[in-house]
Structure prediction request, 351 residues.
Amino acid sequence: MSEFPPRSTGPETSRIGPGAIRIGPGAIRIASSRLWEIYGSIGLLSAHRGLVPWPYANWDKAARRSLSRSEVTIPGWLVQLYRAGGGTLPSFLLAVPASDEANLDEELAALGAVCPARARAELEESFPQGVPAELRPLYADPAAHIAELVAFLPEYWRAALAPYAATLRAATEEDLLFRSRTLATQGPEALLGELPGAAGAAASEALTSAGAARLVLVPLLFGRGAPFSTASPDGSAAALSYPVEGSAVLVGQTPPERPADIPVRGDRLEILIGRSRAGVVRGLAAPTTTSDLAAALGLAPSTVSQHLTALVAAGVARRRREGVRVLYELDRPGVVLLRHMDGARGMPTAH
Prediction:
């Protein structure tokens, strides 16, 4: 276990948001998770079929080559879960990290022990209109598919992430140490207020809506998409991922200084509609929100919003509401455009 400052806060309690909830000493903990990091990286591969955003491009190319050489294939049903969930996963595939630095074998053991009834119940809740055809085998036999996943994940780790293990650990521990100091010296409100993107608000909501007495924050180097979240079976603890700010270590350099709308030579989609808008189109291959897409592409939310408005007006993309979230995804003409410009491999099916 890594040695970090205590997770307890200075004050006896703290309030997160106006009248929201009181957080007592030790209610928030920060813990790394190799399993969650694996999920984050698979989500990146599943969401981006063309050029992935900086700083993941070099890793993406190397990981895909290594997976191909090792003949390791991501289960199709897992990819479908990412896409159906807007880049996140149902909580039965995740577990609240039991220690500051969860062991992958222990996490896989917990995953393998998931009750099939829980998996079916969560799938039914996620898809009230009926489980999609691609996920019905998972619904019919959760135990067999989870066993397949438990066998697959270590192979994926060795092929795609093991070469970056030291980098992952260093970046995560640096971020964990920084957050732990904030928590110990300034309290949970300051910690949640400084989390990147919407992670702080999501953490507050997790504590409030779930009614959990404890919250575990999980830093992810591959955490720039939709956050992962879960709760313990008894509901006493919740866990939520957030992106670390040191992801640039994957390339070891600053982003290339190139104007946002100067296309890459030979990239037909960028030449046609511009670099940033091409990135938005590629990012819409799976349903996503404006904020998540902006974070993934490294663009201002206002810029992404302008692109989305134009793409919807042109019939290339469509928007739909899912609870409190507004999701954007490619419409049929957008799918056809992307398949024509980037090639059919890995493209979504036109519908």
